[in-house]
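U., I forgot to send this yesterday:
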Amino acid sequence: MAGTVTDFDGTEHGLTKKQARRWERFVQYAVVAADEAMAQAGFAQVAPEGAEGATEAGYLLPEGTDANRFATIFGSGIGGMEIFTAESIKLHEKGAKRVNPLFIPTMISNIAAGEIAIRFGLKGECSNSVVACTTGAQCIGEAYRLVKYGLADYALAGGAEESVCDISIAGFSNLGALSHAEDPHAASRPFDARRDGFVAGEGAGAVVLETLESAKARGAHIIAEVVGFGTSCDAYHITSPDPSGEGVVRSMRNALDDAGMEPADVGHLNAHGTSTAINDATEARAFCTLQGVGFSEVPVTSTKGMTGHMLGAAGAAEAIVTALSVANDLVPPTVGFDEADPECAVTVLTEARRDYPQKVALSNSIGFGGHNATLAIAPFKE
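Result:
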């Protein structure tokens, strides 16, 4: 069972045949998502033929955009697992001389950020934060800080993953983390009493960040505002969250403090919500603790009920869902949720809550190693 990107052909999304052949899938996903984000933000301008300063991909930043102040913060939790598997088999069966000479630069997780920067000619800070399933949120948070503190004027940020391959599925399965459900509609069930593990997913998400003043001056379509970012570490266990939820609470509080807001301001939580027993119960406990209640009526949703767990891409995709949620005054339902778990004392929606204005929403990510990250996202109001 897996949440795959079906029938994907990079050449149908603006990649050349050479790129589609050479780039690992996580890089292709990242570039396609970046293309969409940059186009929507008004930065992916196709250069006139022979234009000075155009990139090899044919893009030219709008006049007045300082490429040296345009950061690329894009990560992957694992990187190129498929080429790692294939080249390892080749090494074993055919010897070292047959290993692809481009194996290393094709596999490493930072290459997505590098290819994106090359594609658009972005010459500011270019980095890749690898913090397991927290990667996507962490990259967006770090990009937000660069812009907030004046270290960059713009930033393209997000995460990508190609986690649906034999070796990663085998590893997660043997760890006991994956669902054993045979029905795809009852496999990823965040916060449901019958949940039995997560469903592996893959894909990418990308966002463009800049100051509010800059976006207004450009006449950009502003979807929502990142108003706070918080992180913390459980310092507890390499795969299990601290069951008290204390680390997740600190991450959420740090994000709200950064935003100058209170727990009472939170309209909903887009939870990490993996559909594993301990993660969901821990996160629910943490959200109740944050609000100082035994049972929280503030709605909670998990995108993973629809997508599966995209690992390093999850936090980026979920930040986008959160932004669109507050922009449209709604909270989406959690697919797969039906039977409430007493251990998860939160309100999980089975139908969308509409006409629901919010001051701020939180998007949580939790990763192996004890990493926690929270983005506070508010609707844009004139």
